[in-house]
Amino acid sequence: MTTEALAGPDPDASRAKARPAARAPGSTVPVLTVVLLILAGWYVACLPMNAGLPAMPTEGTLLARYQAAWSLERPVLPSPHQIALELRTSTCGRLDEERPLLEAFFACEIRWTPRNLLFHAWTTLSSTLLGFLLGAVLGTGLAVLIVHVRSLEKSLLPWIIASQTVPILAVAPIVIVVLGSLGVTGLVPKSIISAYLCFFPVTIGMVKGLTSPAVIDLDLMRTYNASTAQTFWKLRWPASLPFLFASLKVAVAISLVGAIVGELPTGAQAGLGARLLTGSYYGQTVQIWAALFAAAVLAALAVGTVGLAERLTMRAMGGRP
Predict the structure, then answer these.
(1) SS3 assignment for the chain
(2) pTM for the full model?
(3) pLDDT tens across 95-107, in order?
């Protein structure tokens, strides 16, 4: 009998097991701290950025000048509360001045009209999702071909990389004009531009993921006399999923960028790109910033949805999300 057995159970170890696990430090406080610092810096920067505008007073106290800089109709840099008010007005209508400010701010009445920002956001999001689907399927298919057909790795992969060196602002008008001459307009041209941008990270990520299994694992599948299809579905595909989801998070974000860029050369009447164009034509910087924030929110929601799908998939496969 060993000395540990004679000594009996370790009381310190028992207390350690009984003690609840310490909670991991959260990220709420650091994130809020960074947000507050950004907002503070933003408000401070409004005065020097708008100081050269004719509507700005040249005299008066510093507080009065800041108040004027934060309430300009067409500022160079709008204040954060101006953008929040524009988002509220463009989605829920104008504030009811007869109500208290907070009550009127949260009293929302959404009307699905072309003047509503949500209408434009959905137009862009529909192009984004279709383009993202096309790009994900194309990128995954190319990666499978590159991994299984060695000649394609040297012949196709350089062209895939070279395709991303062409600026999207040069590609978008070409795609719009060519497809327009073929009678293809509306959602499809913008989706193809989105797919052009987002297939690249999926291809590169999936090539990396499908080739990630160790040599000893591939040799083990050969000893089991596994076919190429069995090796793919039982070894390569599960090993590539973390790479796939990481690529999809990047792809869905740049797919949104592609959809917005695709709306610029078409002179579209709907979409966040159309809102940006309208704002630039009429010098409505607050409207431009509101559209940019709406795009950022859409991108965050899309990336979060992909992350949720990743966690659910990994949990279903018994892995660690």
Answers:
(1) CCHHHHHCCCHHHHHHHHCCCCCCCCCHHHHHHHHHHHHHHHHHHHHHHHCCCCCCCCCCCHHHHHHHHCCCCCCCCCCHHHHHHHHHHHHHCCCCCCCCHHHHHHCCCCCCCCCCHHHHHHHHHHHHHHHHHHHHHHHHHHHHHHHHCHHHHHHCHHHHHHHCCCCHHHHHHHHHHHHHHCCCCCHHHHHHHHHHHHHHHHHHHHHHHHCCCCHHHHHHHHHCCCCHHHHHHHHHHHHHHHHHHHHHHHHHHHHHHHHHHHHCCCCCCCCHHHHHHHHHHCCCHHHHHHHHHHHHHHHHHHHHHHHHHHHHHHHHCCCCC
(2) 0.80
(3) 777 777 777 777 7
